[in-house]
Amino acid sequence: MPTWLGLGLLLLSTVSALAQSIAPPGIPADRFPKPSRPVASIISDRWSSEDTRERIGEAANVMQLLGIRPGMAVADIGAGSGYYTVRLSRRVGATGRVFAEDIMPDYLAGLQRRVTTEGLGNVTLALGEAHDPRLPLASVDVALLVHMYHEIDQPFGLLVNLLPALRPGARVAILDANRATLQHGTPPALLECELRAVGYRQVEFHPLEAGAVYLAVFTPPAQAPAPASIVPCRGEAAR
Ligand SMILES: C[S@@+](CC[C@H](N)C(=O)[O-])C[C@H]1O[C@@H](n2cnc3c(N)ncnc32)[C@H](O)[C@@H]1O
Predict the structure, then answer these.
(1) The domain at 56-238 falls in which architecture?
(2) For residue range 143-171, what is the model confidence (pLDDT) as tens digits?
(3) Strand pairing category for 140-146 and 166-177
(4) How distant is the alpha carbon of residue 215 from its chain centre?
(5) Residue 134 region, left (φ>0) first, then alpha (ψ -120 to 50), else beta?
(6) Count of beta carbons in the 10 Å neighbourhood of residue 218
(7) Is 86 helix (H, G, I), strand (E, B) or coil?
(8) Which long-range contacts (CB under 8 A, 24 or more apart) does 183-186 make?
(9) Which helix (H) or strand (E) holds 16?
(10) CA of 4 relative to ligand 1 center, distance in Å
(11) Number of the ligand 1 atom closest to the C-alpha atom of 104
(12) Angstrom distance (rounded) from CA 118 to CA 45
């Protein structure tokens, strides 16, 4: 028979495992247009096995390309099971911070267990919404979106609501497979078009894994566009 104290402790540990938003909501979802192309379903908390990714040095290469260094604050948007979160945490060190954000509470609960087990004191978990990463004001130097852009139900909302969280000089880096959105990738021309529609400018493009995957880096607009002024990409770029 559990005691009241035992029940209380059980309740406390359950509550602490619940994912939470760490910033107030931004502009509501219904103010933004939907993308005029298919959005892939969320089917997993990881792109592939960490062993496979480590064999090709994926995270190390991406962090090198992005110049991730101690003291930086990085948002791992769509963190899933945390392949990047744990490696970013070690790279930015005690003076840096990693915001591990996702919209799936179960995935964040699993990641919370991993962060606790691995003793990563510089990781903050953040529950977002499809149109809003819910990150604190002026908190992020680099926002990294890995193998998840094609799953964002509201990419224009997410890109606009991300802006207040970016520090001066911040970059947004998107890694995805070079294939159709329904095949869990994003054609680079479509990505560039959708970010340009919100005022972002592509400043780097790195083909990876023999061109099957790419890393595109963007600078944000100086001012957020009015949601109603955003025109979704059509035609060639929307395939
Ligand atoms: C294929 S997993 C990739 C996870 C991780 N980034 C990796 O590279 O292994 C895609 C992740 O993106 C998350 N996701 C999908 N839409 C999202 C959104 N609008 N905002 C934040 N995360 C999202 C999913 O819940 C899932 O954890």
Answers:
(1) 3-Layer(aba) Sandwich (3.40)
(2) 999 999 999 999 999 999 999 999 999 99
(3) parallel
(4) 13
(5) left
(6) 23
(7) helix
(8) 183/40, 184/40, 184/147, 184/150, 184/151, 185/150, 186/149, 186/150
(9) helix 4-17
(10) 38
(11) 25
(12) 18
Rounded CA gap, 14 and 1, in Å?
Answer: 19
* 20 touches ligand 1 (CB under 6 Å): no
Testing ligand 1's pocket by substitution, the residue of 62, 81, 86, 102 carrying the most ligand atoms inside 8 A of its CB is 102
- Please tell me whether the overall predicted TM-score, pTM, comes out greater than 0.85 for this model: yes
CA 199 to chain centre: 19
Tens digit of each residue's pLDDT (9 = 90 or more) over 85-122 = 999 999 999 999 999 999 999 999 999 999 999 999 99
Query: Which residue do the tokens 């062993």 mark?
Result: 51
pLDDT higher than 70, residue 81: yes
Domain range annotation of the chain:
56-238
Residues 6+ apart with CB under 8 A from 56: 209
In 39-48, which positions are buried (b, 16+ CB within 10 angstroms) versus exposed (e)? bbebeebebe
Q: Which two tokens stand for residue 14?
A: 């359950």
